[in-house]
Fold this sequence. Notes:
- This protein is an alpha+beta fold and 155 residues long.
- The chain has one domain: START domain (Alpha-D-Glucose-1,6-Bisphosphate, Chain A, domain 4, 2-Layer Sandwich), CATH 3.30.530.20.
- The protein has three helices and seven strands.
- Helix 1 packs across helix 2.
- The longest helix is centred in the last third of the chain and has 22 residues.
- It is globular and about 40 Å long.
Amino acid sequence: MSDKPLSDEPLRTDAVTLERRIAARPETVFSFFTDREKWLSWMGRDGEFSFEPGGAYRTNVSGEHVAEGRFVEIDPPKRLVFTWGWAGGGMSVPPGSTTVEITLEPVADGTLLRLVHRDLPSPESCAAHREGWLHYVDRLATLAAGGDPGPDDWM
Length: 155
């Protein structure tokens, strides 16, 4: 697994870019982004999701932080794009002000997941969101591969 920036995209101070190899088929990994129970198994304690382009979501990520946004594009099992922000303006990222793009590529040992979170307001926000995405993508990778990540220690 790798969390280094992608070589084909320049390093940015307003975006988080990471990739992970996951020992599961793209269809399996994709389902963790489009099924409420599966989403909440890797990130969040509760939430409401309308998994369709233009559909809204709201999820209590850690007990204190509620993320909100809309699904922009859903292309199973290859690509998912959604807006992202924090209810109440937490971390200076209001709902809908940033965009997360997930792409899934089949590879010999499963799936290469690429995540790009764009339009973050500051280097500090990038650092905080990078830490969060690394934490949650690790949990997703473990679950999609059939493992148990244990309780989320961020809750």
